[in-house]
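Exercise 7. Given the components listed, write out the predicted structure of the assembled complex. Treat all entries as one system.
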Amino acid sequence: MLGRSKKISQSLTRTRRSFFGRVTELLGVSEISDELWEELEELLIQADVGVKTTVELVEKLQEQVNKARIRDAEAVKEILKRELIDILNSKVQRSDESPLLTVILVVGVNGSGKTTSIAKLAKYYKDRGKKVILGAADTFRAAAIDQLKIWGERVGVDVIAHQPRADPGAVVYDTIQAGRSRGADVLIIDTAGRLHTKYNLMQELKKVRRVAAKNAPRAPHETLLVLDATTGQNALAQAQHFKEAVDITGIFLAKLDGTAKGGIVFAIAKELGIPIRWVGTGEGLDDLAEFEAEAFVEGLFE
Amino acid sequence: MFESLSDKLQGVFKKLANRGKLSEGDVDAALREVRLALLEADVNYKVTKDFVARVRERAIGAEVMRSLTPAQQVVKIVNEELITTLGAPAKIDLSGPPPHVVMLVGLQGSGKTTTAAKLALKLRQSGQRPLLVAADTRRPAAITQLEVLGQQLDIPVHSEGTKVPPPVICAHALKRADDAAYSVVILDTAGRLHIDDQLMAELEKIKRKVSPQEVLLVADAMTGQDAVRVADEFNRRVGLTGLILTKVDGDARGGAAISIRAVTGVPIKYLGVGEKLDALEPFYPDRLASRILGMGDVLTLIEKAEAALDQEQALVMGKKLIQGEFDLEDFLRQLREVKKMGPLSQLLEMIPGFSQLKTELTPELTDRQMKMVEAIISSMTVEERRNPRIINASRKRRIAKGSGTTVQDVNMLLAQFRQMQRMMKQLTSGRGRGLLSMFR
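Answer.
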């Protein structure tokens, strides 16, 4: 637990310094004035929190400050912190039941970081004594299968793959069959990157999900949407469309180390009610952290 | 693409267009919404701020007061400022002796490898002999990916595996291009973070070794506020010459295009608009700007109007206007000129502020009304046209009969004409709203 929090905290150091650091500074030294609210709003927007979420957040904060007649900027900071945690926490729901064979479907737009994230997850589960098998259902992008195979070798897990251009549904079927016969605990399915606006590709993804659902009880147990942390407001549209198509159960926020911002998670949690499950914090296989709202928000204000 | 931003701004300007005159407060209120719309579209905060300030400076003051309609003037300013921000169009620079080196850089997952293949295809189509270079030795199977794409396009790929340092691979590739008379060398470098000092230094080394003519940043169109920082840092380290914006086909907003361009000052050269290898389009700032505005290109409207209006007639009309002699005959002529500009429904789309009118009046109805006006005026005598004041009840009945309309229709037309005369007087005195307002 402590290690994880530390990792999130570390990955957010940049964020803290550049952006939320400024919020903290602002809240620490400023009087509560119109300028404060305006600047706060701008600062939140600059962190990709999104206009809607920011405005709602600031208005709510103003209301509370007026009601409680708060004069102290430090107290405003505490309230904002609580609000931010609330947004993220109300969406976190983890099931404790662990099925015999857990199927995790990983989806996302092109270049969001699906394959690397899958490698990290594979390592995570393998380190915890689970037998993991990967399914290379991205049969579209050139060399995507090779890429997953290389990761499989590095992590030391099996990869079930077909030829390029093969039916992704067939790969899922074979992965589940292999999982059964080889006694695997966790199956992680890599799917081709697709823009949420492409109807046919989203239909294909639905089919992949159906194949999983048909061949393992209550599968897929997790459908993770991998989001590039650099993405702006479009991430909301992505999450919405993927949710509609394949019922996203959680977000994997990738590449958080590269950007100073993580504000989009608030918008996603608040507006779509999808929990953030994982955070990718670097290029290494171990650069993975389970998402913790408190640690995340606390990290922003340290 | 970019529809959402268009919708947003259109919503903003509908409010503007429905007002007759703009006060400073109106401009500020409208610009606040413009600001929010731009921010929501991922335009960088600072870029938005500058942009809004520029528009405000121009919108408040004499320019707005003298415009055709205040709203139209603001739209023009916003449009012009957007075009300015997006910058002039630019092609890949292939001047000087070959081989030309084009280096692609960017964050992980921005689309460098796919773009490299697309660019190679595009350049081959324009008569070049491209050589693709697999300089991404980090991402697993990145080299295989480029090789597969090269095979699909039948374009050679220079690769030396993952053990040779990328600067060396690039230098070898340049030598090979020299020997085998390839005209363009496209370097597919590994995706890297702008803050990764070691990897940024590697890019600098590649640049020193092969002196690329073009260093293009490949950036995801969905990028948020951070886009400018990324672009700025790559620009600082390796000196960008241009930008390729990818995944534009799936993106509803164009914010990144505006912000990166504004902060780095480098031109946007291409847009990636699909997964197929021919889905690479040239970038046109004016097109993109008017697309972002979504309310029709004001400049196109003016151009069209200018082309259709006969210059000589315009001169005569202008004289008459100044002398206050504008009559129904002129009105008829003007009506016919406007008709030359195209179907009214199409015209309305181009005029900001007429969007509401468009929903109220079906195109057929509007066109029919214009025909009716034409018929009524045609049924008048020359004298009546020149001096409508002599039209009494008996004349009205005759005109209505002659044009197949009713006396009410004739009355309405005469009322409209009087209103227009008043407007024309305002126009000549410098306070009016002009020609197009007659459709209000």
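Discussion: Chain A touches chain B through 46 residues (CB under 8 Å). Chain A is about 55% helix and 15% strand.
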